[in-house]
Structures are given as structure tokens and as C-alpha cells.
């Protein structure tokens, strides 16, 4: 509460106040509770809601937790009417979910109470009958229920989102359309579950809730496992790529930064979620093949012989050889293999030009060169971002694809680049430094032909 | 068709034959006497086909079809549809499951993914088992839900009990097949199968019961309403299985950087990990431990990346122990960087410990497997294998764990191809 900006505080007080007035009226004014009907049902539903609300939920979308409790709240709309639904929603205050401060709990309880009451009123307005539905009432129930759910969801989103917007001091993130769709889909799924709980109440009472929610909890558990594995996977791949870089003191962290810059460009040119994921890993893995290049070649000061240059040119292929066994990377393979092609066709390994170069490779090439210029090297300090951008502009159309350069410059304007921290002079015994960096466009590789 | 039957052992063939017989009997009988309530049969059959179409592969190469299984279960447990009692026979249930499955498997076949016959047979047999147990009781249970008793509890209790029995039978069959396939102890296989099958089994069981009960109050709309939530569960498991598979592939792939960099012989990490996992199975390790062992074995040489010059040939068994220990420490440090594979890092760190220091079993296995591969390499020559084993046995005194070496001898003996004259 203390850290909140003042509009957020005002909003919080207003929402909690409104809910307090609402619930107070229900409890105090006689006759209001008559609509609830069966107290046992109310108690079971409230417990159910509380249990679901207390379960740690996962964020489907960055700022949101959709929890299973949503189903219980909607079932309450049918079974115990608007007043009951408000009381059920209020129990969110008692939630014991880890890491939820009292302020948040109060706000959650308040907004669930408001949403539940409003949805219940709408349900009745459209002809929904409050109470435990009889076996053959089901068809009559669906229409009003759909309207109630259609109100509950946006209201819930608006109330919560307003709070998030007011509370977060940074600029609001754009919600990706795909994330939004996924989010609405899960809401729809939960609404269906609420309908089932209500529809089966007549048959097996509260057991219906157990039967309905068990698969859901298992699904959540599986999603939890999935997210944990995904995080673990990202950490593992980053650690392994950094292990490959330990040989060269100055390129540490290069792979993660290239991955980040590639993702920025890819987002700017509007790639979809799947491709974004692939390019993130492609950027991460683009240089693993460097290990196959003998150290003495990488470190050679002065012009290279033809053979030595051939060894360097092979490194994208070496990288490909290593990652070939990972099957989600189809497009990423091309990105790794061709990240040293040039727009004018004078790059390696195959000398492709312009649009022949796979899109991933054109993205990674820009990110790679940029990171190389903005990090320290043994033969020069890191260049400022402006200088590096000017170099990219200079190379646009010859070395780089102008579209990607422009996209990257736009992305940099939106989120400033965090250059790597100053590399302190390397400890002498443990590490190696190269005197050349083949990614650095300002240090062209000289090749001596002839014997 | 030959491709389908390749690599099946006798147990699997027996299972497939049994399932085939049951399916034929069901279809033939149903064709003879005609379908009872064809609309319901078609509805459920369609859902089974969809589930079969959307089957997924769980970690450990286990194929499951949760949506299809739940639909089959629902059809088996169906008592009535909007208060009209249903009396389809067990044989009809079998026929619907079989036809639905085949319909769902056809698209897979069309795009050249041959069916996993053993997995399909297991699904069908489990369904048939439950059908033969439950259908005869359906009439009685339905009567109880009507006036004067009007109670659903007996039906619910019978359903849950029979499902538990059917799931247990399924797990036992799966464990038997698996024990034969990956050569592990039956009891370990049962434990692994239960661990894998429990969450998904519980979800499928709950959904199946729910489907049967929902048809009582919602008619066939229950099928539509259910397709969405079941899909959520399915998607979650699919994503989980996908990332697990990718993870393993990635560690396998990236463990080869040491080979490309010339630190170790080509194929070394892969051979060591295969041998280590085989030894672990031989010693009765469970699947989660085996996975950690595999990761640690794949990455046991990753510490060499921090070395200035590759050790010639990377034969760590021949270099001085201090050096080897340093490499192990460096490797563990790299793996600890992930922040999630701490146990794997620990296994790598202790791979050089002698028996006196009491390292974990997995570390002992890696140590032995690594030494064996340094001596034998990719060769499959029996004499060379025998000589290497002999040499490791001599080192048993303090270096290698005798139990591990003996397990290795058995594994190597099995893996080495028999000399043909």
C-alpha cells in the first residue's frame, strides 16, 4: 500500500468501499439473504472458492492470474443468486495463497464480490432461475448463464487491469493479441466448468465440484510443470552457451545479448510467438560452432592464410552439426548456418545475397554485429551505441539487410540497450583473449592468398 | 505393415493379438444384433476418434490419448440419457471404442506415422475390461437412482472402484511390457508407471465419470461441453511433454561441443551416457534418477571447455587425478550456473571421488562408464571390451565400485554383438 502512487490508492479505496457497502447491505437489510436459498450450498461453494483461490496459480499472461476459483464464482451465480455470489467472492480476502499481501487480498475479495453480484443480477434479468437446477432445466439455463459470464469476465478484467495500470509505475506493456486470445479461451473454459458444477449439483451435490475441478487442477499442475521445465530449459541452454564462451574472456555473455537483440528485431518486424521462441534460441546458439575453430586461428594477429580463413568460415556449419539433433529449431538452423552471409552476397558459408538469405539469419547478423561493436574487445574498448548504430546504417544494403537495421533502430528507440558492464582487464592465468573478432564489422578479416 | 510390427517383442504381440480378438468379437456381435441407440454410439465414437487423433507422447516414449480414454470411459459408465435408461452391452462398448480408435488412427497413418499398436491395444483392453465388469451392473445401478431410493452414491462408488481396478491392471500391463523393453526390474517399472500414469489417470477418470453423470442431466450436449475442458488438460500435458523432449535433445546436442572442440573423442558423451543409463537400470534406479544420471553423464566433460588446451584425446582416465578433479569442479560450476540442475552438478563434481569418499551411486556409474569408454571407445570388439573390464576390475580396490563394474559387465555382454563366423 505504501509504495502505491496516489491514483491507485484512491481507486483501491473506492473499489473496497463499494464492495463493503454492497455486502453490508446484503447482510444487514432483512430479506436480502432470502434469495440465497440454501445456506449449506453457500457454505460449500464459499469453501470451494476459497480453496481454489488459495492454490498458487500461474500467469497465463504476464500480469494476470486466472484461477480455477472463477468457475466456483460463476457456479455460485446460478446456485445461490447475486447476493450469495457476492458473499462467495468476498471470501477471496481469506485466501492463503503464498506471496499475497493483505491489500491485494482485500482488493481481490472486493472485485470478486462486485463481479459476482453484477453477474447474478444480469443472470436473473435474462430469465435465469436461481437455485439448484432440476435435471431437465439445463437448456433454459445456458442462455442467461452465457450472458452472466460475458459480463463477469470483462468486468473482472477491467477492474483488475485498472489496478495494475495505476499501480505499475512503468509504461504499460502491450498485451500481445495471441496472449489475449489464449487468456479469453481459458476464461471460456473456466466458465464452462462453472456451468458443469451448477448443472450437476442436483445429481451428486458437492461431489460434482470435485469431479469437475480435479481434471482442472491436474491441468494446472501440468502447466506448472511445463513452466518450470521451460524456465529450467532456458537457464540450461544459456549456461551451456556461456560455457562455450568461457574460452574467450571478452565474448562472455555475447550469446544472451545476441539472443535478446534478435528477439527485439523479430518483435519489431512482427514475428509470431513460435518464431520468436525459435529465434531466441537461434540467437543463443549461433556461435556454438566457434569451438570447432582452432584457438590459434581465432587468436591470430594479422592476416589469415586461406586455410585459416576456411576454418573460420566453417564455424556456422560446425554449429549446425551440434544443434541438428534438436527438432523444434527448423527455421533456427538456417539462421545459425547463414548468420555470416552478407546482403551483397560476399559473405560465407554460401555467398547468398539479399532475399536468398533466410530471415532469421538476416536478423541475427545485425544483432551479432551490434553486440560485437558495443562490447569491450582486447584491441579496443566498447563503442557507444550511437556509433554502433551509425556503423549498422553504413553497412545497410551492403553487409546488412536495410529492413532489419531499420527495425532494430526503431526497437532501440523504444527500449534502450543495456551495454554489458565494463570488462575489467582479464585475470591472466585462467582465460584467453582473442585479438580478432570475426563478428566485428569494423575489423574486416584480411586474407592473404597464395602459398 | 512390416514397419509396424518391427521391434515388437513377444509380450507386445500377445497383447496386440488379444486386443484384436476382443475388437473383432465386439464388432462382429454388434454387427449381428445391431446398435442400441446409434446416435449415442456415434457421438461417443466421434469423441474417441478425436482423442485418438490428438494422442500425445509423454516422457519415456509413452503414448497416451486422454480425450479418447475419457470418452471411452464415459460411454462405458453411461446409465441413462436424460432419464431414459440405456442398456448397451459390453460388446457394443468394445465395438465403439475399436471403431473410434481406428478412425482416429487413419489420419496418422495417412501422413506416414505408423500407429503404436501396443499402446492402442492397451487402451482398448483396459476399456474392454472395464466394460465387461460394469455393463452387467448398469441396470441395477440405474434402478437405484430412481424412486423410491433416488440415490446416486452406489453408482458413484462402483464406478470409482472399478476404474481404480482397471487403471491398476493397465499399469501392470504397461510395467510388464516396459520391463521387457528397457530391461529393468518389474517392481521398478511398476513404480515408474504409477508415477507417470497417476496424474493423467486421475484426470481421465474424473472426466469419464463426469461425462457419464452429465449425460443424465444434459443429454448429448455433455459431449460438446466436455470437449473444451478436456482439451485444456490435453494441451497442458502436450506442452509439458514437448518441453521435456526438447530439453533432453538439447542437452544431448550441446554435450557434443566438447567433441567438436576436439576435447574428447567423437561420440564419447553419447556412449558414456548410454552405458551409464543401462548400468543404472541394471541396478534398479527409478526414472527420475535415471534422467539426472543421463544429464550428468552427457555433461561430465563440460569442464574441459574451461581448459586452455584440450587434453590429447580427452582420455581423463590417463591424466593425473588432480587435473581430472579440477575439470570435474569446473564442469559442476558450469552446470550450477543454470540454477536448476544442482543435483546434476553435484553428480558431475563427484565423478572422480574414490569409493572411500562415498560418492553418490550415479557418480560412481559415470566414473566407471567414462573409464570404460576411454579404454574401449567406439569399438565393439569383444576382446577389447573384456580387457577393459579386467583392467577396471583391477582398479576396484579403491577406484571403482564392484557392484557397478559387475552391472557393467552384464550390460556390455548384452550390448556387444555376438560374433558371427
Question: In a few lines, what is going on in this structure?
Answer:
The complex is a heterodimer of chains A (451) and B (421). Helices cover 62% and strands 2% of the residues of chain A. With 451 residues, chain A is mainly α.
SS element count, helices of chain A: 16
CA-CA gap between termini of chain B: 32 Å
Oligomeric state of this protein: heterodimer
Kindly report the spatial arrangement of strands forming the biggest sheet of chain B: 1-2
Average predicted confidence as pLDDT of chain A: 82
How big is the Rg of chain A? 29 Å
Q: Helicity level of chain B, as a percent range? A: over 70%
Bin the strand percentage of chain A.
Answer: under 5%
Largest interface: A-B, 66 and 60 residues
Tell me the layout of helices and strands.
The complex is a heterodimer of chains A (451) and B (421).
Chain A: H1 6-28, H2 39-54, E1 59-61, E2 64-65, H3 69-90, H4 102-125, H5 138-167, H6 177-204, H7 206-245, H8 254-268, H9 273-285, H10 295-298, E3 304-305, H11 306-313, H12 315-323, H13 330-337, H14 359-374, H15 385-395, H16 402-414, E4 447-448
Parallel strand pairs in A: 3-4
Antiparallel strand pairs in A: 1-2
Helix pairs in contact in A: 1-3, 1-4, 1-5, 2-3, 3-4, 3-6, 4-5, 5-6, 6-7, 8-9, 8-14, 8-16, 9-13, 13-14, 14-15, 15-16
Chain B: H1 2-5, H2 10-33, H3 38-53, E1 56-58, E2 62-64, H4 66-77, E3 80-81, E4 84-85, H5 90-110, H6 117-145, H7 153-182, H8 186-218, H9 221-254, H10 257-260, H11 268-282, H12 287-298, H13 321-336, H14 342-349, H15 361-376, H16 382-394, H17 402-415
Antiparallel strand pairs in B: 1-2, 3-4
Helix pairs in contact in B: 2-5, 2-6, 3-4, 3-5, 4-5, 4-6, 4-8, 5-6, 6-7, 7-8, 8-9, 11-12, 11-15, 11-17, 12-14, 12-15, 13-14, 15-16, 16-17
Amino acid at each position: 500500500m505504501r509504495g502505491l502512487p496516489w491514483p491507485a490508492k484512491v481507486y483501491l479505496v473506492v473499489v473496497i468501499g463499494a464492495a463493503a457497502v454492497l455486502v453490508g447491505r446484503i447482510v444487514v437489510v432483512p430479506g436480502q439473504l432470502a434469495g440465497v436459498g440454501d445456506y449449506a450450498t453457500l457454505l460449500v461453494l464459499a469453501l470451494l472458492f476459497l480453496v481454489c483461490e488459495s492454490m498458487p496459480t500461474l500467469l497465463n499472461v504476464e500480469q494476470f492470474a486466472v484461477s480455477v476459483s472463477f468457475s466456483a464464482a460463476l457456479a455460485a451465480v446460478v446456485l445461490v443468486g447475486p447476493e450469495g455470489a457476492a458473499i462467495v467472492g468476498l471470501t477471496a480476502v481469506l485466501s492463503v495463497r503464498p506471496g499475497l499481501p493483505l491489500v491485494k487480498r482485500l482488493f481481490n475479495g472486493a472485485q470478486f464480490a462486485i463481479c459476482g453480484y453484477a453477474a447474478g443480477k444480469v443472470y436473473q434479468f435474462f430469465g435465469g432461475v436461481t437455485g439448484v437446477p432440476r435435471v431437465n432445466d439445463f437448456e433454459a439455463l445456458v442462455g442467461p448463464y452465457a450472458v452472466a459470464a460475458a459480463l463477469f469476465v470483462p468486468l473482472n478484467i477491467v477492474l483488475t487491469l485498472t489496478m495494475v495500470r495505476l499501480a505499475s509505475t512503468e509504461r504499460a506493456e502491450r498485451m500481445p493479441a495471441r496472449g489475449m486470445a489464449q487468456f479469453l479461451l481459458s476464461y471460456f473454459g473456466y466458465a464452462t466448468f462453472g456451468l458443469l458444477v451448477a448443472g450437476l449439483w442436483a445429481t451428486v451435490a458437492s461431489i460434482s465440484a470435485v469431479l469437475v475441478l480435479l481434471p482442472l487442477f491436474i491441468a494446472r499442475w501440468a502447466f506448472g510443470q511445463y513452466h518450470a521445465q521451460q524456465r529450467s530449459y532456458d537457464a540450461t541452454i544459456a549456461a551451456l552457451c556461456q560455457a562455450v564462451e568461457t574460452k574467450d574472456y571478452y565474448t562472455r555473455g555475447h550469446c544472451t545479448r545476441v539472443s535478446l537483440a534478435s528477439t527485439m528485431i523479430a518483435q519489431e518486424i512482427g514475428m509470431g510467438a513460435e518464431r520468436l521462441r525459435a529465434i531466441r534460441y537461434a540467437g543463443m546458439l549461433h556461435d556454438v560452432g566457434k569451438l570447432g575453430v582452432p584457438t590459434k586461428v581465432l587468436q591470430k594477429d594479422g592476416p589469415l592464410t586461406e586455410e585459416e580463413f576456411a576454418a573460420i568460415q566453417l564455424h556456422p556449419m560446425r554449429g549446425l552439426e551440434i544443434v541438428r539433433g534438436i527438432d523444434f529449431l527448423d527455421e533456427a538452423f538456417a539462421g545459425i548456418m547463414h548468420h555470416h552471409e552478407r546482403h551483397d552476397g560476399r559473405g560465407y558459408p554460401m555467398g547468398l545475397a539479399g532475399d536468398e538469405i533466410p530471415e532469421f539469419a538476416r536478423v541475427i547478423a545485425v544483432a551479432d554485429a551490434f553486440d560485437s561493436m558495443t562490447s569491450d574487445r582486447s584491441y579496443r574498448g566498447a563503442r557507444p551505441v550511437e556509433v554502433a548504430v551509425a556503423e549498422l546504417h553504413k553497412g545497410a544494403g551492403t553487409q546488412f539487410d536495410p529492413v532489419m537495421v531499420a527495425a532494430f533502430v526503431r526497437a532501440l528507440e523504444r527500449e534502450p540497450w543495456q551495454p554489458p558492464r565494463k570488462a575489467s582487464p582479464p585475470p591472466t592465468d585462467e582465460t584467453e583473449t582473442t585479438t580478432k573478432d570475426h563478428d566485428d564489422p569494423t575489423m574486416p578479416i584480411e586474407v592473404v592468398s597464395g602459398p | 505393415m512390416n514397419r509396424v510390427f518391427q521391434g515388437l517383442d513377444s509380450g507386445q504381440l500377445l497383447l496386440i493379438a488379444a486386443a484384436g480378438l476382443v475388437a473383432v468379437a465386439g464388432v462382429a456381435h454388434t454387427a449381428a444384433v445391431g446398435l442400441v441407440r446409434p446416435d449415442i454410439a456415434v457421438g461417443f465414437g466421434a469423441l474417441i476418434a478425436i482423442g485418438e487423433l490428438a494422442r500425445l507422447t509423454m516422457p519415456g516414449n509413452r503414448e497416451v490419448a486422454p480425450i479418447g480414454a475419457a470418452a471411452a470411459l464415459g460411454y462405458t459408465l453411461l446409465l441413462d440419457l436424460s432419464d431414459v435408461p440405456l442398456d448397451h452391452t459390453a460388446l457394443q462398448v468394445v465395438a465403439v471404442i475399436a471403431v473410434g480408435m481406428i478412425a482416429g488412427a487413419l489420419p496418422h497413418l495417412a501422413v506416414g506415422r505408423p500407429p503404436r499398436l501396443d499402446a492402442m491395444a492397451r487402451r482398448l483392453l483396459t476399456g474392454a475390461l472395464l466394460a465387461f465388469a460394469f455393463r452387467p451392473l448398469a441396470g441395477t445401478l440405474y434402478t437405484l437412482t430412481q424412486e423410491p431410493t433416488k440415490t446416486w452414491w452406489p453408482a458413484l462408488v462402483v464406478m470409482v472402484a472399478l476404474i481404480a481396478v482397471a487403471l491398476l491392471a493397465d499399469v501392470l500391463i504397461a510395467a510388464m511390457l516396459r520391463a521387457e523393453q528397457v530391461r529393468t526390474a518389474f517392481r521398478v517399472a511398476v513404480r515408474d508407471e504409477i508415477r507417470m500414469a497417476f496424474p493423467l489417470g486421475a484426470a481421465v477418470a474424473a472426466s469419464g465419470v463426469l461425462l457419464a453423470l452429465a449425460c443424465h442431466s444434459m443429454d448429448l450436449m455433455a459431449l460438446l461441453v466436455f470437449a473444451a475442458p478436456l482439451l485444456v488438460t490435453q494441451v497442458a500435458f502436450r506442452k509439458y511433454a514437448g518441453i521435456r523432449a526438447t530439453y533432453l535433445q538439447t542437452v544431448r546436442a550441446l554435450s557434443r561441443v566438447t567433441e567438436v572442440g576436439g576435447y574428447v573423442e567423437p561420440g564419447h558423451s553419447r556412449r558414456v551416457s548410454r552405458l551409464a543409463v543401462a548400468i543404472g537400470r541394471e541396478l534398479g534406479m527409478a526414472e527420475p534418477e535415471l534422467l539426472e544420471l543421463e544429464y550428468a553423464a552427457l555433461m561430465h566433460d563440460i569442464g574441459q571447455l574451461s581448459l586452455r588446451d584440450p587434453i590429447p584425446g580427452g582420455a581423463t582416465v590417463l591424466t593425473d587425478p588432480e587435473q581430472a578433479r579440477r575439470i570435474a569442479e569446473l564442469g559442476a560450476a558450469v552446470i550450477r550456473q543454470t540454477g536448476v540442475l544442482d543435483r546434476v552438478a553435484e553428480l558431475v563434481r563427484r565423478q572422480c571421488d574414490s569409493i572411500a569418499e562415498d560418492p553418490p551411486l550415479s557418480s560412481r556409474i559415470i566414473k566407471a562408464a567414462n573409464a570404460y569408454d576411454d579404454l574401449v571407445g567406439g569399438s565393439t570388439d569383444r576382446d577389447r571390451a573384456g580387457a577393459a573390464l579386467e583392467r577396471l576390475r583391477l582398479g576396484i580396490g579403491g577406484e571403482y565400485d564392484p557392484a557397478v563394474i559387475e552391472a557393467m559387465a552384464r550390460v556390455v555382454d548384452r550390448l556387444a554383438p555376438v560374433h558371427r563366423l
